[in-house]
Structures are given as structure tokens and as C-alpha cells.
Amino acid sequence: MNQAIEDFVRCKRIAVVGYSRNPQKFGPTAYKELKERGYEVFAVHPTEKEINGEVCYPNLAALSGKADGVLVSVNPQQSAAVVQEAAAAGFHNIWLQAGAESPEAIEAGQKLGLSMATGKCILMYAQPVRSFHAVHRLFARVFGGL
Predict the structure, then answer these.
(1) Which of 99, 118, 101 is nearest to 29 (CA)?
(2) Where is 43: in which H helix or E strand?
(3) Is 49 in contact with 56 (CB distance < 8 Å)?
(4) What is the pLDDT of residues 86-133, one digit of tens each?
(5) Residue 20 and residue 4: Cα distance in Å, rounded?
């Protein structure tokens, strides 16, 4: 496991950027799963104050000091801006969920000196790993992808 992943999974308070009303999107799924696994999670949505009973924060600056890491689950075209916003709000540990990463976001994180996990699914690493993610993790370990 690389250092950025290790650093991130040690975070116990996570901002989820990409939380939405659509339960089919990854943001709400990750939020729910992380919460069930004992993480303190914070929903970030630019226009909603509350979704499904969960308080939403308008931006990462509103969470400065409340969260230790930022899970980015947005369209790849938006991810570089989220990385820059996270750095400006004082966050160091960033997870670009598989499908949210972009070369621009990765480059921005590197230039800003952030610890960034990229191209992986947080649910394969956040303990306790459950369901089919445990099987994926086993295969990744056996075949060298962990």
C-alpha cells in the first residue's frame, strides 16, 4: 500500500465532495459506507444545505479544522478545482476516487505538495473492508495491485 493511501485511511474525519441526492452516484454511497465503518463524514454540496437528513457544507473552507481528509468524487473536469480548494482550506490528505481523477488534478496536487491517493476505490481500503470490496482487495494483493 502506498504512503498516500496509508495516510488517508488514518484520517477518521472525511469530507465527501460529490455528495448528491442521486443514490446511484458514488458520493452518497461512499458517505454512507464510511459512516457505517465508523468514520465521521461531512457532505459537501455547493447549493444544498441538507440532503436526506444529512447536513451539507457549501465548500471545504467551511470544514477547515473539522475534517482530516477530502474524498473527491466529482466529474474529472471538476477535480482539479476541488484539489486546489482543498489545499486553500488547509487540507493535506486527498483521495481522488477512481473515475474522478484527471491529469490536471494530479498535477495540481503534486505542485501543492499534497498527499494524494488516486485511481483506487476508497472502499477497498477503509477499514473494515466488507462485501465484494474484500474480494477485490484480496485479488489486488495477490496480483500486485494493492
Answers:
(1) 99
(2) strand 40-44
(3) yes
(4) 999 999 999 999 999 999 999 999 999 999 999 899 998 988 776 544
(5) 26
Residue holding cell 468524487?
A: 73
| Helix residue ranges per DSSP H, 37-88 | 76-88
Coil vs helix vs strand at 144: coil
Range of the domain at 44: 3-142
pTM of the model as a whole: 0.88
Q: Give the CA count within 13 Å in the CB-facing half-sphere of 53.
A: 1
Instruction: Return the CATH number at 93.
Output: 3.40.50.720
**Tally of domains in the chain:** 1
| H/E run at residue 96 | strand 93-97
